[in-house]
Each structure stands twice: as C-alpha cells, then as structure tokens.
C-alpha cells in the first residue's frame, strides 16, 4: 500500500482545499510520531534563491546553527519551523547536479529508526548538533536519495 496526496480547488469557497488520502497496510505499524521536517536544496546564488522563497512562499529567514562548511540559510514557515534549508557548495562540485540534497523527517523514536537501518544493513552517519540539542541520522534510499531522520537529544 502507499500514500497519495491531492489538492483540490473548491469552487464553492473559491479556495484550495488540501485533502490527503492515506492507505495503510494493516501489517505495518507506523512510528508513533514521524513527520516531514525540512527540505535542503543546493543553490548557486544563496541571496537570489533565499529571496525567491521569501517572495513566492512567504518564508522568512531566521536562525541557522553555525555549521562548518559552506554558507547557507534557513527559511521559516508561518508556524516558526525552519522548513527550507538552502546550502551552497563549490560550483565544480558534483552535488550541484542533484539540486535536492536531502529530505528530512523528525521522530521521537530515533532508536527504532537505527534498529530498522541496522536490521537491513543500511549504512548511516550520525551527527550531533549540541547547540540545537539535536541528533541527526543520514542515509540513502535504494535509488541513492539522501534522507535524514532527526530527534531532540535526550539527556542521560
């Protein structure tokens, strides 16, 4: 089974009506809490692309942790979530051909994600972002797409 999303124009209201149809496999139980967190896109012109997303989507620039490496920007939605991450890289990098860097999900059960990755012998990298109390796991899907699952770091 899968999931299908559909956005409809409601002529009676003169506005878009977001409708999502979800088909669930009864044998498979979803994690207790999992949602899309952000999209990270490689850009050549950071200022221009940032302005584009601000103008077109109404996103606003905001705080971005001081990651090592190339400059970037985080753009926030109306609820205050950093949903669009823009990253720069050298123009001769092969990453520029990908445009989309990764798709990120947020969970409250990162141990289960690690367990699933380990059980399938999928290689992954773990990063900690201390200033944001965040743990990130990066891995690739079967066709090479880069995914991130992150969780708030729990004090031990």
Brief digest:
This protein has 156 residues and is mainly beta. It contains 2 helices and 10 strands, in the order E-E-E-H-E-E-E-E-H-E-E-E.
Give an overview in words:
With 156 residues, the chain is mainly beta. The chain has a single domain, classed as Roll (2,3-Dihydroxybiphenyl 1,2-Dioxygenase, domain 1), CATH 3.10.180.10. The protein has helices at residues 46-57, 110-119; strands at 3-10, 15-22, 34-43, 60-62, 72-76, 82-88, 100-107, 125-129, 134-140, 146-152. The chain has an 8-stranded mixed β-sheet, with helices on one face. A two-stranded antiparallel ribbon has the order 1-2. Residues 1-24 have low confidence and may be disordered.
Oligomer: single chain
Beta content: 35-45%
On the 0-100 scale, what is the average pLDDT?
A: 78
Report the CATH architecture: Roll
**Intertermini distance:** 38 Å
Describe the main β-sheet briefly: 8 strands, mixed
CATH superfamily: 2,3-Dihydroxybiphenyl 1,2-Dioxygenase, domain 1
User: CATH fold name, please?
Assistant: 2,3-Dihydroxybiphenyl 1,2-Dioxygenase, domain 1
Number of domains: 1
């Amino acid at each position: 089974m899968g999931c299908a999303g559909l956005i409809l124009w409601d002529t009676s209201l003169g506005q878009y009506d977001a409708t999502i149809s979800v088909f669930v496999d009864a044998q498979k139980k979803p994690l207790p809490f999992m949602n899309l967190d952000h999209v990270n896109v490689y850009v050549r012109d950071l200022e221009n692309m940032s302005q584009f997303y601000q103008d077109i989507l109404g996103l606003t620039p905001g705080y971005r942790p001081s990651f090592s490496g190339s400059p970037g920007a985080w753009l926030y939605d109306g609820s205050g979530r950093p949903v669009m991450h823009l990253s720069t890289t050298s123009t001769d990098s092969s990453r520029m051909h990908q445009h989309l860097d990764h798709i990120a999900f947020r969970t409250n059960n990162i141990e289960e994600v690690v367990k699933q990755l380990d059980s399938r012998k999928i290689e992954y990298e773990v990063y900690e972002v201390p200033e944001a109390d965040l743990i990130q796991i990066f891995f690739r899907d079967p066709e090479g797409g880069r995914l991130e699952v992150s969780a708030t770091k729990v004090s031990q």
